[in-house]
Amino acid sequence: MGNPLFAKKKAVVAPSGDETVEEKASSPLKVLIIDDETEVHRVTDLTLKRFRFDGKKIQFLHAYSGKEAMEIFDTETDIALALVDVVMETDHAGLDVVHYVRKDLQNNACRLVLRTGQPGQAPEHEVIERYDINDYKEKTELTSQKLKTLMYTGLRSYRDIATIENHRKGLRQVIESTTKMLQTHSLNDFASAVLKEIMNLLQLDSSAIYCSTFPQEGSGAKERAVLAATGSLADIKESSAPLVPDDVDTCFKEVLATKKSQHFDNGYVFYTCTDKGYENLLFIETKGDLTDSQKEFLEIYCINVSLVYENLMISEEIKGTQSDILHLLGNLAEQRSSESNSHSLRTAELSYELARRAGLGVDDAETIRRLAPICDIGKITLPDTVLQSEDSLTDEQIALLKNHPNVGAALLSKSDKPMMKKAAQACQTFHEQWDGEGYPNQLSGETIPVSARIISLAAEFDRMTSGTDNSAAMSKDEVLSQLSAQKGAKFDPTLSDLMIEDIDFFWSIRENFPD
């Protein structure tokens, strides 16, 4: 072994020489030399001074003992290759380092090569069998050329392992993003997250924007929607073509005309088209040509996101059709009563906003918006003598009136679809009151579903602000007075307070959706 005084020395030798712009832009690869002989460090530095791998320089780290090497591994997690002497402060110090890196740190990426000047202390066949090393060399056989060969093979192996690990992380990110998208039904969030991770995976420090075009019904024209953006384009949300930068828009138009992916001076545009006519455009600001593997990966991204986009469009169409049917049924009930002709539409909007202020998520609030128009569907079974009577109702007529929530719920519950089951529940509980004085089952407080509590308050607010055949519209002060008076009696007190606190906003909905 060398002079033990050298064990106190520690240095990090940064890349030297005149670096090119490209080399400065990329991080050097870290190689750790572990040996208690300073001459070994000096000769290795000298031999590999101008060594490059994949255009990158090498940053040499130095440890003069096994203990010092372990400390460096603790702080430097991206060491590509370590040249490890076996015999240092102990006869097995280097083997202890190997064990520490592989077992304690669980670092399987770093390439570990044993270099020993005393092969008898650590026979090759025993060491390779017992320890997770990548190569075993006697110092006497390591000529300058063989040392460089060792560097190439070790760093190539590290590069390939790092690539696989990056792909694994990228796949996990895609799966997590997909899960988020399926939970939130937000294609923009999904596409942006996946795009960002792919840019990281491909080590592209660039801006990108992803668009999809789809045919407009009844015309040959196409609309364009921005699905994802990153980098300097990240502020662009779902929008139409005019918000896309002019230079990118010019590229998109040319690619749409040729229907082929193309390289431009400012970037690369990938083009794909689905069976249903959705054309997808991915613009990436590039600093040079992309590799074939990068192009292939990004084209796969375009295809997969466009398929998700198609499915989401179909889902939105189904939801839209469902909402239209519920609105039509709600309007049918309105026409048989004294409600104004936009009552169900305003009630739906009021219900959504009240639900959001009550802390419900977007999906739950959207469900309540779709349920609102259908809550009084049972009225279609009531005779005109009950619905439009200007006189006091008889006991028999009152019984009919109070039973219409059950009739409506029975009608809706014939469907086994989740939305219709929720509609049936809201229909049956819509006329219940916080104090238990409602009908048909005299439910009270929080035993009434929150959807029914929200829609009931929203519907009553609209009646107060719009008026009915039997009463005039109230002023804002009169509405506030009624809300305060009925808080904790007819209406959920918390919901009432939310509406009172933001009365101007809720009042504006009446103005935005006039009869």
Characterization of the model:
The structure is a single chain. The chain has 515 residues and is α/β, with parallel strands linked by helices. The radius of gyration is 36 Å and the shape is elongated. Helix content is 51%, strand content 12%. The strands form 2 sheets. The protein has a 6-stranded mixed sheet, sandwiched between helices. Strands 8-7-11-10-9 form a 5-stranded antiparallel sheet. The chain is built from 18 helices and 11 strands.
What share of the residues does DSSP label as strand, in percent? 5-15%
* Count of alpha/pi helices: 18
Q: Taking Cα atoms only, what radius of gyration do you get, to the nearest Å?
A: 36 Å
- Structural class call reads alpha/beta
> How many strands, what sense, and barrel or not for the largest sheet?
6 strands, mixed
Helix content: 40-55%
What coarse outline follows from CA principal-axis ratios?
A: elongated
Q: What does the average pLDDT come to?
A: 81
**Uncertain parts:** 1-25, 238-242
Distance, first to last CA: 95 Å
The total strand number stands at 11
Q: Concise description?
A:
The chain is of the alpha/beta class and 515 residues long.
